[in-house]
Amino acid sequence: MHMKKFLIFSIFIYSIFLISCSKENTEVIDFNKEFNINPGGNLVNAMTGEPSNLIAMIAGDSASSSIAGNIFNSLIKYDENLEYAPDLAESWQISNNQKTITFKLKKGLEWQDGEPLTSSDVLFTWKLITNPNTRTPYASDYQLVIKAEAPNPHTFKITYADSYAPALDTWASLHILPKHILENEDINNTFFSRNPIGSSYYKLDNWISGQQVTLNANENSISGPPLIKKLTSRIIPDTSSQFLELTADNIDLMNINPIQYQRVFPAKKDLQSKIELYKELGNGYTYLGFNLRKAPFNDIKVRQALNYAIDKEEVIKGVLLGLGESISSPYKPGTRWNNPNLNPYPYKPKKALKLLNEAGYIKNSKGILLKDGIPLKFEIITNQNKQREMTAVLIQRRLQEIGVEVSIRVIEWASFVNRFIKTGDFDVVVLGWSLSLDPDQYNIWHSSQQGPGQFNFLGYSNKNVDKLLEVGRKELNLLKREKIYHEFSKYLLEDSPIVYLYAGYSLSAIHKRVKGIKQPSPPAGIYHNNYDWFIPKPLRRNEIME
């Protein structure tokens, strides 16, 4: 009797519990209401590729740079309007002859370990990047400095042999490194690459290879404390898996693809209620690049033929669902550096075949292009990126239609960069370039920049281009400079070391629990003020409430 009463009571309590849970789970959160700003929380984002090295001057890849950018500071930076602003330096002065820049550092700067950050660290970083033993693709910009000095702890002074137009841009890009830790280290092989000591908003907490990188707020940040106290970057190579994690509320931020943007989100009201979408033309482009050190890609007619054989509009429509623009120069459409008189190679398979015939390739009875009995055959490699994979498939189909045999290999990012790109062990690559605000592309296209780990990994060489790049970086007059880079773009388009495929829109999906994002997006993009983003206490996950 007593047991029966207890059982009935237990069932009653359990029913109340279920009803309570059901109400809790179906409760609709109003993400649009006003929330108080309180420091704390964990922002979880997804990355397709794992960082290779948190020393950006060594790494050279976007995954590494995005993480390192939260840890290190530069002398100056860009503000939301893409104007130069103080960072480590509180002010700077350019001499009348445009050859000398004097930076005045802020007082009381510290590394995260409490050691003082001074001009000696800046001088050390300059010596490091210009050291011929340092394997970096960025050295040429800083080797133009003929004299660098730190006359006192708060002054750093540099002198160029000639005026150098991108000078400030280069110092806005260089992460300053701690002398007291690295002066006796081999920068190419140091513990510091996975255990950095920085000065910016965040410091490394842990790095679990293949899984995630976690940053915590740096209490000694020279920039002040960020509102979000933890950043977790989960390494998820497959964007479909990323999307599932986003919909399950396991991540807060990811770059989405056009299908998700155009079709999935508009059809799902539950996603619209909790996820905000952001769209802006990116500062980069996707391309097909030829290894010019290998035959047949050392033949300009072959490269031009393959350019005519690829339907770029098909790629933009098929892969990007129209969310991209066709380009004909390595500059962002709509900027002054983009040559408006240039047009992309149109899709003309007959012209492609004519050029290949002129290069000695003739179709056999099976429709395969041969030269001296050897088929025109090569492999396209790319990293684990669905858009690039789909792009490669469309290219493969169009080239096979004219008799070119193409295979595709998809490689994990770290191996892709270190095993293939940096070594030059590839035929053709589908990859992307992100661009700085200055038009100088000496590091990418000058013939001198072909060493191991440098950016001219395609092996491009053109004396006229070399001269234009050398003159362009010294020219201060904007109109004259514009003319130089328009001419440079003309040569590059004609030579076809790459096939420009598209400039895509940057599409971001961010959970509405994340606040402080500026709308409309300023010129610098939505991420420019991520240190001012915050997650209100009621919307935080995995956190004990006060």
Q: According to CATH, what is the topology of the largest domain?
A: Dipeptide-binding Protein, domain 3
CATH superfamily membership of the largest domain, which one?
A: Dipeptide-binding Protein, Domain 3
Number of E-type strands: 21
Q: What is the top-level CATH class of the largest domain?
A: Alpha Beta
User: Based on the structure, what is the oligomeric state of the protein chains?
Assistant: single chain
For the biggest sheet, the summary is: 8 strands, mixed
CATH architecture classification of the largest domain: Roll
Shape: globular
Entry summary:
The protein has 546 residues and is α+β, with helices and mostly antiparallel strands. It has helices at residues 2-26, 56-59, 62-68, 119-130, 139-143, 167-173, 179-182, 239-247, 258-267, 269-274, 300-309, 312-320, 349-358, 386-401, 413-421, 442-445, 463-472, 478-495; strands at 42-47, 76-78, 84-86, 89-94, 100-105, 145-152, 155-160, 202-208, 212-217, 230-235, 253-255, 275-281, 284-290, 324-325, 362-363, 369-371, 374-375, 377-383, 405-411, 428-434, 498-511. Strands 11, 12, 13, 14, 18, 19, 20 and 21 form an eight-stranded mixed beta sheet that branches. A four-stranded mixed beta sheet has the order 1-10-9-8, with no helix packed on it.
